[in-house]
Design a protein that fits this description.
Length: 144
């Protein structure tokens, strides 16, 4: 086997395609000359493009999800901090307190209350109509 680079004619060191090449540059030139698609190192043409598009999509999706999570978590943190500040100010009597607060027992559970009310309530057209009227009246009472 002749160890001569078929591209530049120098002494070949790296074996590829049944020839010896002096370096990677000459292998690339040889590949181009004989239309050889490289199998090793990187994936060829359309395949790599598809892979790239899929990866890009996943990365963008990931960024959107991270951004969305960031916004949601920020909102929750801001809400908690605002609530704590409000409670603190309310305790110190520094802000106007709501006169329409309903005092509740310590053992009050909203789910239990909903269940109780749900059982007690009879659904009929008249009841629904009265309910709507009640809501409108109470709303007017609160905001007058
Ligand atoms: Zn060479």
């Amino acid at each position: 086997m002749v160890k001569t680079d078929p591209i530049c004619g120098k002494r070949g060191i790296i074996e590829a395609y049944g020839h010896y090449f002096c370096g990677k540059e000459c292998i690339s030139i040889y590949e181009e000359k004989y239309n050889i698609k490289r199998e090793r190192g990187y994936i060829t043409g359309a395949k790599s493009e598809k892979w790239y598009r899929e990866k890009t999509f996943l990365v963008i999706l990931g960024l959107i999800v991270i951004k969305a999570l960031f916004v949601i978590i920020s909102a929750i943190i801001i809400a908690i901090v605002t609530g704590l500040i409000y409670q603190f100010l309310d305790k110190k009597g520094l802000i106007e307190s709501n006169e329409n607060v309903v005092e509740i027992n310590d053992d009050f559970l909203i789910l239990k209350d909903i269940k109780k009310r749900w059982k007690e309530h009879r659904f009929s057209l008249v009841n629904v109509k009265n309910g709507v009227i009640d809501i409108i009246r109470n709303h007017e009472l609160i905001y007058k």
